[in-house]
């Protein structure tokens, strides 16, 4: 996730390999789980999602509020869509994701689940500054 003034990072240390690169007004995150790799695009929201962080996974987009609480920056889902069509929040996956700084490191924890399917993904780790 990109925020103005944030130190650029290049390497990720987490339970699953991940990396990201800045491009065209946002970031592309690439994550690997076993033999499967997927990517997402994070960017600043526009229109209805102004002031929210948006992340797109293929045809799905999620708009999240960044909420500072208890020394963490939580990502709170506010809306989602499929191919640009808004979907009801009661159908939305649940997220318990946050970022923090611990021991001088940028740390993150991501947990996504759905009431009908249970846990979808969970991973955590930290990013190291570019050398």
Q: How is the topology of this model organized?
A:
Elements: E1 9-14, E2 18-23, E3 26-33, E4 36-44, E5 53-57, E6 60-69, E7 72-82, E8 85-87, E9 94-95, E10 97-102, E11 105-114, E12 118-129
Antiparallel strand pairs: 1-12, 2-3, 3-4, 4-5, 5-6, 6-7, 7-8, 7-10, 9-11, 10-11, 11-12
Provide an overview of this structure.
With 131 residues, the protein is an all-beta fold. The protein has no helices and 12 strands. The chain has strands at residues 9-14, 18-23, 26-33, 36-44, 53-57, 60-69, 72-82, 85-87, 94-95, 97-102, 105-114, 118-129. Strand 6 and strand 7 form a beta hairpin. The radius of gyration is 15 Å and the shape is globular.
List keywords for this structure.
0% helix; mainly beta; twelve-stranded antiparallel beta sheet; 131 residues
Oligomer: single chain
How many helical stretches? 0
Q: Mind summarizing the main beta sheet?
A: 12 strands, antiparallel
Low-confidence stretches: 1-15
How far apart the termini lie comes to 19 Å
- Averaged pLDDT, please? 82
The secondary-structure class comes to mainly beta
Write the element-wise H/E pattern from the N-terminal end onward.
EEEEEEEEEEEE
Provide a compact summary of the structure.
With 131 residues, this protein is mainly beta. Helices cover 0% and strands 67% of the residues.
